[in-house]
Specification:
single chain, alpha+beta, 18% helix
Length: 351
């Protein structure tokens, strides 16, 4: 069947104008193709739309089951029970590692005072230290001993413990015992046995074969937490122990002799200014007197460096005017610092 209507005409023609069935010729069937109008196509196939099935609806989503198989629950419980059993049976496996009981941090030096120090840190429920101070050169022993057995002032040492990055992990200041006063020129008695310091440390002088003090041993508590203690890798220290030039001056003073470089008039070290309390401030050095070993400031102060100390000054300390910052204890012992200089000067306040 095509897009055109087909039909068979019932008209039958016979030769000579006779109708069919006269017995002469058989009837002939004839088909003709008749074009169909385009508007009839929609009506022709309209049945397809009526026969099309309706669109299927989406299946509803199923919720995931949160249930855990019973076997997995028992397995998880067994694992947790095993971990708990291991913790109870071997608690040391889960405790933090305790600090090592002994750390030898080696030796460092403090050149201005000619000192060598060896430091040992210890841990037994808390931190402690051992510090051994010695003169760097055997030629300095006499000068070192004159200060150790009869300090010109109360001394102090500050320890700085550093970690692997070089940062200060802990710090400790040690104050020496207050010096025992005695008559100038008189030979001081060497104190026997350990002495207690105001900071709770122990200071003990060790004498050599010649009877002179050859080493100062210091021990005491170290107020550092275990975490900081475990990070100790190196150390350094600074101190107000007299400089080499001051040690020489003090040795001559102890022997009742003229300070080195002074005139032969028999005078001892200049009279040191004693203060009711420690002082600190800023001033400007405006001049010096090399023959007396002193420098003068714009504020009217006079600091005694010693003749040797004047000659050993760094170049940046010999240019005036020199802005300084000073810090002096009540015994007149001072530390002078200057901006942009890495060198500090030990001095005594005379005025």
């Amino acid at each position: 069947m095509s897009d055109a209507d087909q039909y068979e005409p019932n008209r039958q023609a016979a030769a000579g104008g006779q109708s069919a069935g006269s017995g002469e010729d058989p009837p002939i069937s004839r088909f003709e193709v008749v074009p169909t109008k385009q508007s009839n196509l929609g009506e022709l196939y309209a049945f397809r739309e009526t026969m099309a099935p309706p669109p299927a609806e989406p299946a509803p989503k199923q919720k995931k089951s949160l249930s855990i198989p019973v076997a997995k629950i028992f397995l998880l419980a067994a694992v947790l029970a095993g971990i708990a059993l291991i913790i109870v049976a071997f608690p040391s496996l889960f405790r933090p590692k305790p600090p090592v009981p002994y750390i030898d941090l080696g030796s460092q030096s403090f050149d201005p005072a000619g000192l060598s120090g060896r430091l040992i840190a210890r841990w037994e429920n808390s931190g402690s230290y051992q510090l051994f101070l010695d003169p760097m050169d055997q030629e300095q022993v006499a000068r070192f001993a004159s200060v150790a057995q009869d300090p010109p002032r109360q001394l102090s040492v500050t320890l700085r413990f550093r970690d692997a990055a070089g940062l200060v992990a802990c710090q400790k200041q040690i104050l020496f015992p207050v010096p025992v006063p005695h008559t100038r020129g008189a030979k001081p008695a060497v104190l026997q046995g350990p002495q207690q310091s105001p900071t709770g440390d122990t200071v003990e002088n060790t004498t050599g074969e010649d009877g002179q003090v050859s080493e100062i041993d210091l021990t005491g508590p170290l107020p550092c937490p275990a975490k900081a203690y475990a990070a100790f890798k190196s150390w350094d220290f600074f101190t107000d122990f007299p400089t080499l030039a001051e040690q020489e001056e003090w040795l001559r003073h102890e022997r009742g002799l003229n300070p080195k470089g002074h005139g032969g008039n028999g005078e001892l070290l200049p009279q040191i200014e004693h203060l009711p309390t420690a002082i600190e401030g800023d001033d400007v050095i405006v001049g010096d007197n090399p023959s007396r070993g002193t420098v003068e400031t714009g504020g009217g102060r006079v600091f005694f460096l010693g003749v040797a100390g004047m000659h050993n000054r760094a170049a940046d300390w010999q240019v005036f005017p020199a802005p300084i910052h000073f810090r002096c204890d009540k015994n007149g012992s001072c530390v002078l610092t200057r901006t942009n200089s890495q060198v500090s000067l030990q001095a005594r306040l005379l005025k």
